[in-house]
Amino acid sequence: MRISSRGEYGVRALFDLAQHYGEGPIPLKQIAERQDVSDHYLEQLMGALRKAGLVVSVRGAQGGYELARPPEAITIGDVIRALEGPVLTVYGAQAETERAETVDSPERLALVETWKKLSQRVNEVLDSVTLAHVCDEAARMKARDDSFMYHI
């Protein structure tokens, strides 16, 4: 499994929106600057995320993007699948009805079952982490870093 820059930047953009959830639409340029991502590239990603129902866009002078659902309701898996498609695919690991045609031996079937289990576990992990979890973790890390700051 490999997460491309498309997936990573998409997650970073939605993480940014989650950190500012409830503040209204955030201009794309602000997200791009804070996340150090090209606004042109981010615009392409936001189109795919909008089609997937993860963000909504607001036009006009006060426009921008905001999450379509609360951060607790959007998982990292939702974002990755919206931008990259299935997280882990293995040749021969299709649906049960197709398996008999593509898997020609018990040994190969055993390997396909292993790949299916791996795919399920990867998806379970990605679906267990919400944008809210990532925001909470970032806040904990920031608080820990700030606690070591000394002022003279």
Summarize the structure.
By secondary structure, the chain is mostly helical. The protein has helices at 5-19, 28-35, 39-51, 76-84, 96-102, 106-128, 131-146; strands at 55-58, 64-67.
Low-confidence stretches: none
Helix content: 55-70%
> Could you say what the CATH architecture is?
Orthogonal Bundle
Quickly name the level 1 CATH class.
Mainly Alpha
CATH topology (level 3) name: Arc Repressor Mutant, subunit A
DSSP summary: helix tally: 7
What fraction of residues sit in β-strands? 5-15%
Order of helices and strands: HHHEEHHHH
Shape: globular
User: What structural class do the secondary elements suggest?
Assistant: mainly alpha
In whole angstroms, how far apart are the ends? 48 Å
Please give the domain count: 1
| CATH homology superfamily | Winged helix-like DNA-binding domain superfamily/Winged helix DNA-binding domain
Q: Mean pLDDT, as a whole number?
A: 87
The total of beta strands comes to: 2
Describe this entry's structure for a reader.
This protein has 152 residues and is mainly alpha-helical. It has one domain: Arc Repressor Mutant, subunit A (Orthogonal Bundle). It is 60% helix and 5% strand. The chain is built from seven helices and two strands; from the N terminus they run αααββαααα. A two-stranded antiparallel ribbon has the order 1-2. β1 and β2 form a beta hairpin. The longest helix has 23 residues. It is globular, with a radius of gyration of 20 Å. The N and C termini lie far apart (48 Å).
